[in-house]
Amino acid sequence: MSFREFIDRLKENGKLVEVQKAVSPKFEASRIAKQTKAPVLFHDISGSKVIMNLLGSREELAAMLKVPKEEIISKLSAVSPEGEVRLVSDSPTLEVVEDEVDLTKLPILTHFEKDGAPYLTAGIVVSEYGGTVNASIHRLMLLGKDRLAARLVPPRHTYLLHRKAAEKGEPLPVAIVLGCDPTIIYATSTRVPVGKEFEYAAALRGGPIELFECENGVKVPHSEIVLEGYIEPWERADEGPFVDITGTYDHVRKEPVIRITRVLHRKDPIYHGILPAGPEHLLMMGVPYEPRIFRAVGEVTTVRNVVLTEGGCCYLHAVVQIEKQTEGDGKNAIMAAFAAHTSLKHVVVVDEDIDIFDPNDVEFAIATRVKGDTDLMIIPNVRGSSLDPRGAPDGTTTKIGIDATKVLVEKENFERAEIPE
Ligand code: MN
Q1: What's the pLDDT tens digit per position in 407-421?
Q2: Which of 20, 48, 49, 330 is the most exposed place for a label (fewest CB within 10 A)?
Q3: Same domain (yes/no): 100, 243
Q4: For residue 166, what are the domain limits?
Q5: Catalytic residue among 244, 329, 351, 403
Q6: Does residue 134 share a domain with residue 254?
Q7: What DSSP letter does each residue of 30-92 carry, written as one string?
Q8: Contact, 264 vs 178, CB < 8 A?
Q9: Separation of 159 CA from ligand 1 center, angstroms?
Q10: How far is the CA of 391 from the centre of ligand 1 (A)?
């Protein structure tokens, strides 16, 4: 499904909010997106179309994957990155080709009060070096007409490819993709084996992914907009402040600079913007970790489901549902979850009768099945998330696991009363 077809389907299902009036790219668009929460299509941001909150709910994600909401994780866990990728020679993306680069003509948004500059937030950076390909979303700060600063997090794949090229004094060819098949957007947010993002997307969508080649050799999927360029080997610029998943400001760092050499786009392109700390950002950051936790817990006990909760920024808090087999399973599940997602800070393990999508039900489990001296695991001085404002400067934190499962031998004490039909 193309980006446009996905938006059309949202519209047909009555899920799309449309804003016809002119909206400012500075603060106004992000304010409206934050209030609306639903997918919102702006028809006039500096004369351009912009979509926000595109994949902002588990319902949308489930619809994209063609499964019920409860089965997202088992579907994602079952798919291996081995779909078909085809190279094609033409693309609707080539409808307009601009050699005279001016990024300020794009409706790049400024989201929050203290942001360092306007930021591209939904750009998939596809890079290729020495036969290795990578595709992942990076926040990209607008520096000028043809320059962006890219936050490359070590030791992720783009960071490694850039370092490899820089060691030889070579620029890293990249193409920044905006607005492609949402399955691809989702796949590139997932940690898959090196170079397998498009194969994973093809497997998820259940059909081949077509790529076409840019002038610099990088192969990209059909999309609304593509920015071709190079990450400079040594040049650095101040990047930040920028709001990340916790909704707090991430600080300024010296980050690599991308020089854009060519812009390709469809006629009347739809620009994709992700609201930092908004529902789409949280889901894209968090949901890809759920299958990893699911698989890891599945190695130690019978796992039923996993959710990274919204209140925990879809990143720092997990609820893991197990079918407890033996006493101690809850603790093993806690250790497996922490090992699978190193940024995870607090995890609650519950039984199969708890609705993990309902925070009240999870709290009920904590209220009625936890005894503080035996059911908590406190693990100090372990690596946490660089995005946690409460983390130590050296990147460590304290993790807490809560075993909110029933004590097996006293099972009947925990029975939830039911009224017969
Ligand atoms: Mn990768």
Answers
A1: 999 888 998 999 999
A2: 20
A3: yes
A4: 84-267
A5: 244
A6: yes
A7: HHHHHHH-S-EEEEEETTEEEEESTT-SHHHHHHHHTS-GGGHHHHHHH--S---EEEES--G
A8: no
A9: 10
A10: 26
